[in-house]
């Protein structure tokens, strides 16, 4: 069922994008035709045609969810992106800016006047504004801060004071609290006074007069019990509690483990200061997954696919420079065995196989280890235990697949010795790949770095140079 839902969502997004692109294309085509026509009141006709097509696009955007508009904006080239952005209703700007990627958000903010940015920021809650604030000009933030009511100002100051990877940074201040000495009937009457409950409200938070958390009252418990029952008699006191300084990643694991929709956030004195909701956790998990993918490829940050050339170059140059150095080292390894390759041309045909299989195996290992670290399943002292396990896997794979390649090499070149060298080189390079795949992320973890950054780049460099050295070295020793 979930796969069908994801497929349906993807199709709907693509349909939205295709519709917007079609309207933009029709707008450009008709405008071009009208512009070339000679007719009375040409400018008036052109202006009417222009407004008609933009009105169609405006009406279509009004029906779309902010997240879907964000997806469309990310998929459009800059010129078309700005046309669409100008057609979005101003009161939706803040929501959409929160949904788009960091790179696209930056490009949109650059086109907005300070008054527009202030209006967009003022449409957001304090916790949402804290997410957007780092991308806004300082003058705009100061104006917004002064315009907020005292309570929201304190909430914004609190939200902005927490580190980016903490629970406080994803905390929501919009929640419903009740007292334990009132009846469920009183609580129901209280809830009916709301126009709507805060998003993802699956439970109410029970506090005393000092705002200390006493427990939670799930909505299903509220609805199925006798209205004359007091809250204190049916509330749950054993619930997951978070603190604002906790790591957001640990909170995400708690949501996954206990299937939470929301969880209270309390200070050291157990005073309720906010809550974390599942939508914030899902966003966090998605962002971490994207950042991990980018880091493994050696990219420092998310990149707008339509960004100016110079911006993309700045984002990619560092690891490309490292790649250049490692590729040069690999070429020097091959150069050192030029004599052997000249005497036995088969070596040139076979050595990419050794390096390629080693790189693939190493990337499998490092991906598994990085994922395990992210899930909290690997501690820094686990290096030896994991290394022994991965070396065992590499040994079996090396003997199995290396043996198969050895037989193929023997059949192709009629040389038993070449087959044995191929098997040995494959096995040794897989052992090297396993060692590097375990050691690189764990050593980075011990040193306080991100285990994912550049992992695949380093693995490829090691298995290329190492594979060439091992294979050509063994061939020189035993075949030449």
Written account of the structure:
By secondary structure, the protein is mainly alpha-helical. It folds into 3 domains: 13-159, MgtE N-terminal domain-like (MgtE N-terminal fold, Alpha Horseshoe); 177-277, Roll (CBS-domain), CATH 3.10.580; 309-478, SLC41 divalent cation transporters, integral membrane domain (Tetracycline Repressor, domain 2), CATH 1.10.357. It contains 21 helices and 5 strands. The strands form 2 sheets. Strands 1-2-3 form a 3-stranded mixed sheet. The protein has a two-stranded antiparallel ribbon with strand order 4-5. A hairpin with a 5-residue loop joins strand 2 and strand 3 (213-218). Helix 3 (66-75) runs antiparallel to helix 4, helix 18 runs antiparallel to helix 19 and helix 18 packs parallel to helix 20. It is globular. The termini are far apart. The relative contact order is 0.06.
DSSP strand content = 5-15%
CATH homologous superfamily descriptor of the largest domain: SLC41 divalent cation transporters, integral membrane domain
Main sheet strand line-up: 1-2-3
CATH architecture of the largest domain: Orthogonal Bundle
* DSSP summary: helix tally: 21
Major sheet summary line: 3 strands, mixed
Total strands: the figure is 5
The secondary-structure element order is HHHHHHHHHHEHEEHHHEEHHHHHHH
Roughly what is the average pLDDT, rounded to an integer? 85
Number of domains: 3
Instruction: Assign the CATH topology of the largest domain.
Output: Tetracycline Repressor, domain 2
Structural class: mainly alpha
Helical residues, percent:
55-70%
> Ranges with pLDDT <50 over ≥5 residues?
1-8
Query: What value does the Rg take, in angstroms?
Result: 30 Å
Indicate the overall shape. Answer: globular
The top-level CATH class of the largest domain is Mainly Alpha
Distance between the termini: 61 Å
């Amino acid at each position: 069922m979930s796969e069908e839902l994801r497929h349906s969502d993807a199709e709907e997004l693509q349909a939205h994008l295709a519709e917007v692109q079609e309207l933009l294309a029709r707008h450009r085509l008709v405008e071009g035709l009208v512009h070339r026509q000679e007719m009375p009141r040409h400018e008036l006709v052109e202006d009417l045609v222009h407004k008609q097509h933009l009105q169609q696009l405006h009406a279509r955007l009004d029906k779309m969810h902010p997240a879907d508009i964000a997806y469309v904006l990310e998929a459009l080239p800059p010129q078309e992106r700005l046309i669409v952005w100008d057609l979005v209703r101003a009161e939706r700007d803040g929501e959409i800016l929160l949904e788009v990627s960091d790179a696209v958000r930056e490009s949109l903010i650059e086109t907005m006047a300070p008054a527009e940015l202030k209006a967009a920021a003022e449409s957001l809650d304090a916790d949402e504004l804290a997410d957007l604030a780092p991308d806004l000009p300082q003058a705009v933030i100061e104006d917004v801060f002064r315009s907020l009511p005292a309570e929201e100002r304190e909430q914004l100051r609190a939200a902005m004071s927490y580190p980016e990877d903490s629970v406080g940074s994803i905390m929501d201040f919009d929640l419903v609290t009740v007292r334990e000495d009132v009846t469920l009937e009183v609580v129901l009457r209280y809830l009916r006074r709301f126009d709507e409950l805060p998003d993802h409200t699956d439970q109410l938070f029970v506090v005393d007069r000092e705002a200390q958390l006493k427990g939670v009252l799930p909505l299903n418990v509220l609805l199925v019990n006798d209205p004359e029952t007091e809250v204190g008699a049916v509330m749950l006191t054993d619930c997951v509690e978070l603190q604002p300084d906790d790591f957001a990643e640990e909170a995400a694991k708690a949501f996954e483990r206990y299937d939470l929709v929301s969880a209270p956030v309390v200070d050291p004195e157990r005073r309720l200061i906010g809550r974390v909701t599942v939508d914030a956790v899902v966003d966090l998990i998605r962002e971490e997954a994207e950042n991990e993918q980018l880091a493994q490829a050696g990219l420092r940050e998310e990149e707008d696919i339509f960004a100016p050339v110079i911006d993309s170059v700045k984002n990619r140059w560092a690891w490309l420079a490292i790649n250049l150095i490692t590729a040069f080292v690999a070429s020097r390894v091959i150069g050192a065995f030029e004599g052997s390759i000249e005497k036995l041309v088969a070596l040139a045909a076979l050595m990419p196989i050794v390096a390629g299989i080693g790189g693939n195996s190493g990337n499998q290992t490092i991906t598994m280890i990085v994922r395990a670290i992210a899930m909290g399943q690997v501690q820094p002292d686990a290096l030896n235990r994991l290394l022994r396990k991965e070396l065992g896997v590499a040994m079996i794979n090396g003997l199995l697949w290396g043996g198969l390649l050895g037989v193929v090499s023997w059949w192709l070149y009629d040389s038993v010795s070449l087959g044995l060298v191929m098997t040995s080189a494959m096995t040794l390079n897989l052992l090297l790949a396993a060692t590097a795949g375990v050691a690189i992320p764990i050593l980075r973890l011990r040193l306080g770095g991100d285990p994912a950054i550049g992992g695949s780049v380093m693995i490829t460099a090691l298995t290329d140079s190492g594979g060439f050295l091992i294979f050509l070295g063994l061939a020189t020793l035993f075949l030449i």
